[in-house]
Amino acid sequence: MYSGGMASPSRGVPAFLRLAAHPLRWRLLTALADGDYRVRELATLVAEPQNLVSYHLRLLRDGGLVTASRSSFDGRDSYYHVDLDRCAEALASAGAALHPALAPKPAGGAPHPVPAPKPAGGAPHPVLDSEPAIQPTAGGVLFVCTGNSARSPIAEALLRHRTGGRVEAASAGSRPKPRLHPEAIRVLRDEFGIDVAGRRPRHWNTMTGRRFDYVISLCDKAREICPDFPDRPRRLHWSIPDPDQAGYPAFRRTAAGLDTRIRHLLSRMEEVPQ
After folding, report:
1. 229-259, pLDDT tens digit by residue?
2. Where in the sequence of the chain do the CATH 1.10.10.10 domains occur?
3. CA–CA separation, 162 vs 266, rounded Å?
């Protein structure tokens, strides 16, 4: 397991560098930087035998840089995910181990808009206080899952909130439920000050005529049947467990994980709102 801190010459090369410097492991980390993949998909992407890819993924997992979760579509499969924040911390610690001057300095400012403070008195921030009008868009991000009642509307709200509405965000599902999950409404209100109480789930057929830059599936089942969209948007998959039956703590973890991934997504987008 990787551990940070200063290193003396006798301690040798930092663990992160030993892990990431291997050419195949670096290619795997690069492939996983934007989305989650199964072993056979990674083997195709890096053009290496599946057993070799599995071996190096195990090393990355043992080093704490990569995690795996069972697919909700096929329990015999697992999706792999790279922990970019942990990679950043490990890389910073490796620099500090080389010389104290390379230790990370306090950030002078956030590179992207951050969630606004909660209004005084606990009142919700009126970002999505009613069903947003569906208007033609020149681009944007569509999040899809099955019920469009928890994961995808949370992601939609967080992307719009983090960018101040300057990135077009939408969400939809393959089998939308009648209403948003109460805990999804609660976690956005309590943790981010966003009100989505007026939002209603929608079917992804209502989106097929719109253009998106990214279509991101959050549900392993939805990934398998997601329709095509005009102009070939970039398709990403984030394998997010369904918090539906797990209670409010699971919704908090889901929202926090989605917010982290959205922050990383904004760093990748060609035009990030200033």
Report:
1. 888 899 999 999 999 888 999 999 999 999 9
2. 9-102
3. 9
Which two structure tokens, joined as six digits, stand for 195? 């009100």
What's the pLDDT tens digit per position in 18-28? 999 999 999 99
Residue 272 backbone zone (phi > 0: left; psi -120 to 50: alpha; other: beta): beta
Between CA 31 and CA 20 the distance in angstroms is 13
CA distance 99 to 197: 51
pTM attached to this predicted model: 0.80
Fold of 9-102: Arc Repressor Mutant, subunit A (1.10.10)
* 274/264 Cα distance (integer angstroms): 15
Total length of the chain = 274
The residue to which tokens 């300095």 are assigned: 105
- Cα separations in angstroms, 248 against 46, 184, 239: 39, 9, 19
